[in-house]
Write a structure and sequence with these properties.
There is one protein chain. By secondary structure, this protein is mainly alpha-helical. It contains 10 helices and no strands. Helix 1 packs parallel to helix 4 and helix 9 crosses helix 10. The relative contact order is 0.10. The protein binds zinc ion. Zinc ion binds next to loops.
């Protein structure tokens, strides 16, 4: 292990920097997807003076710190949000690669990283606009299919007693077990309690996480979402509320610890109901 340490340090540094640059692209997605703007053409502009941001000022995290969070040409403050998204994505990639031991499960680590990036986009875009992009949802569904083909499920679904040939059934039921009830709520409340985007998001992440994972994800979303909702209502009396950010947070946690949390609940908590 110790003789491998230098290799791990090089790999982890690279993974973090790669995550940060993808984070830069996620900022573009968060900002442009709701407006149906192209993700590739045109450089970024200052929100306040419209000046195109120069290439040398586009280095993730570093540029924002060097410019002390201000536009070079007009001095208007630039939101720390961009830097936060970049750093967050870098740290998430680093965490996933360490947690899933990159040497042993490289493909699974990469797929979970991509899932996390998609969830970061959903989190911030829904927070800003109350919209969840269908492109991002389709991307998550594709990752779920990929995950089915490449992952070593004996590792991911450990002590779950599942054989390989019923894993696809688990994923398929996972796609509907939360999203169908949500769809009903969405229809009955005419979209007031829940958006159609939330329904599609839980179908896609359910396909990825399977039954136990998606239920854990939804439980975490309910808990964190109600806390955030109460804080928001207390702060500005606002009851317009995006649920997507909390569904993303729950899904991200469930992608790592979903099976363990589900098993822990079943082993320790079900007694209190009987
Ligand atoms: Zn400016």
């Amino acid at each position: 292990m110790t003789e491998l340490l230098p290799y791990y340090i090089v790999i982890y540094t690279f993974v973090f920097l790669f995550g940060v640059s993808i984070g830069s692209f996620l900022n573009v997605c968060i900002y442009r997807l709701p407006k149906e703007e192209s993700l590739i053409k045109r450089n970024s502009h200052c929100m306040s003076c419209g000046e195109e941001i120069k290439r040398r000022d586009l280095i993730p995290i570093v540029s924002w710190c060097l410019l002390k969070g201000k536009c070079r040409s007009c001095g208007a403050p630039i939101s720390p949000r961009y830097t936060i998204v970049e750093a967050l994505n870098g740290l998430l990639y680093l965490f996933v690669f360490i947690y899933f031991d990159v040497m042993q499960f490289p493909l699974h680590a990469i797929i979970v990283c991509l899932l996390f990036s998609a969830l970061v986009v959903v989190f911030f875009m829904d927070l800003d606009t109350q919209l969840i992009s269908n492109y991002v949802v389709i991307f998550i569904a594709l990752l779920a299919v990929l995950e089915y083909f490449v992952s070593d499920y004996t590792y991911i679904f450990d002590n779950n007693g599942m054989t390989y040939d019923n894993i696809w059934k688990n994923q398929l039921v996972g796609a509907f077990i939360v999203s169908l009830p949500l769809l009903l709520i969405e229809i009955l409340s005419k979209g007031r309690a829940m958006g159609r985007g939330d329904v599609y998001l839980m179908a896609a992440t359910g396909l990825f996480l399977g039954i136990k994972g998606v239920i854990v994800a939804f439980a975490i979303a309910l808990i964190t979402g109600s806390v955030a909702g109460m804080i928001q209502k207390h702060k500005n009396g606002d009851s317009v509320f995006a649920f997507g950010p909390w569904l993303s947070l729950g899904s991200a946690i469930a992608a790592i610890w979903g099976q363990q949390l589900g098993n822990f609940y079943l082993a320790n908590m079900t007694g209190i109901w009987s």
